[in-house]
Amino acid sequence: MKEDTTNMFIPDFYVGRNIFITGANGYLGKALIEKLLRSCPKVGKIYMLMRPKKGLDVNERLKKIVENKLFDTLRNEQPSCFDKLIPIVGDIHAENLGLRPIDRQILIEKVTIIVNIAANVRFDITLKNAILSNTRSARDICILAQNMKNLAALVHISSTFTQTDKPVVNEELYPYGVDWKKMIKVAESVDDDILTTFTAKCVGSFPNTYVFSKRLAEEVINDYSKSLPCVMIRPSIVLPTMDEPVKGWIDNFNGPMTLYMAGGKGIVQVTYCNSDNDCQYVPVDVFVKAVIIVTCIRGTKSVIEDDTFHIYNCSDLTHVSIKKFADISARLLEQIPFEKMIWMPSNSTTSNYLKYYILIILLHIMPALFIDGILKLLNINPMLLKLQRKIYMATTVLAFFVLKKWQFRNEKLMKVFNSLSEDNWKIFGFDKTSFLTHDYAKNAILGTKQFLLNEDIMNLVAVKRHYNRMKWLDRIVRTLFVLIVLWILYRKNTLFYIIGAFFPLSV
């Protein structure tokens, strides 16, 4: 290893430091908290911004979070560590994060690190909600940070896709001509229906309101970085864990693994994308390691010593194409298929919209109508057509991201990892050559079955039998389809003309 960029043992930096995390109950937040508690055991309190939901108060929600299988290792080895988790009532959609005065004062006096992960990630939210949740909340985080007495680092989590107007995205801030202060005022004062009318004009070349609002949030953090120790990380598409604390951990239905799961169950037969593009994936455990390391680097120097805005892209590690990873996953699904498969899995892709639309009708809509018809006869609520409609709408929204090609440069972040000392590398290093390989894909599929779908791995023999039945059914249906087409052509006297065109008789 080269000289350590941090110039210290990273867990030592976190000793006694109190951390405030927004989005702590999300996928990235849970993974970050687990790694902090496990690898930096002397960390101080971790304050988690949360809101009551589904009849549960924040303490009840926290209890459900720590019951997640992600925390099994900690429960066995450090059961008392969860006492460090302190829920704070709040909401990123509300002004000033919806904090109570007493909680706000606690954060001001005790917190030394802020990690702002929370965002409304839906692509179809109104412009008003996107600005309030993703842009104004970033401003309110910065205002809170300015009042903190011992702030060492403010870490903002953005996205590489905030720069979709550029084919090559470096680890730097790109000037943007929209005034974020005016946009917040407009979102606060203008009626939602009126603002929706001007959404297309405001968003411009960006694909949706989420990307637009996150791009504005980068401007917010940049403006405050002149007086605050700011660091920004742009992750690309986050996938299940590669190694820690358990291989293949995932706990939400967002991202590519959901599509692989739908394909593995036979629900999705064709995908609309450019399969030659790089995957642009990053495992969640590598992402949280990056957050912990660059926070330490930023936190070791004050704004007076270093007034630069630290920016890193946490993106593609191996440049594996979508097609290659899909082929690896498809072969694995023969060995470890999903339960309740409705048809033989397929990994067909196309970037031609007309071809995709025709295949959607043939392979998605028509089978859905057929299966829903059978369900009606059995007095079971039909659901497949409704599901296929949702998949089609989601695919249409995602098309912008899977058809275009970007290069997200991450040399700065890789330099940070490569310069770790041996002691730090043992805790925060990773082997990028093992990412998106056969072993990784296998663990990701097993993780999806175990953590997301709650499937019993011990039931694999019965699931394979069902897979083989689906394979034979698929072959039979395809053969019948060809025979029916040939019969129709024969009845129309068209078959002989076709044969004659390819194999003319010599006179």
Detail the topology: elements first, then pairings.
Layout: H1 10-13, E1 18-22, H2 27-39, E2 46-50, H3 58-66, H4 72-77, E3 85-89, H5 101-110, E4 111-116, H6 127-146, E5 153-157, E6 168-169, H7 180-189, H8 192-197, H9 199-203, H10 209-224, E7 230-235, E8 237-239, H11 256-264, E9 270-272, E10 281-283, H12 284-299, E11 310-314, H13 322-335, E12 348-350, H14 353-377, H15 384-403, E13 407-408, H16 411-418, H17 422-428, H18 438-452, H19 460-491, H20 495-502
Parallel strand pairs: 1-2, 1-4, 2-3, 4-5, 5-7, 6-13, 7-11, 8-10, 9-12
Helix pairs in contact: 2-12, 6-7, 6-10, 13-18, 14-15
Keywords:
507 residues; seven-stranded parallel β-sheet; Rossmann fold; 10% strand; alpha/beta; globular
Anisotropy-based shape: globular
The quaternary structure here is single chain
Terminal residue distance = 79 Å
What percentage of residues falls in helices of 4 or more residues? 40-55%
The biggest beta sheet reads: 7 strands, parallel
The order of strands across the largest sheet is: 3-2-1-4-5-7-11
Catalytic activity: a long-chain fatty acyl-CoA + 2 NADPH + 2 H(+) = a long-chain primary fatty alcohol + 2 NADP(+) + CoA
Subcellular location: Membrane
Organism: Ooceraea biroi (Clonal raider ant)
Function: Catalyzes the reduction of fatty acyl-CoA to fatty alcohols.
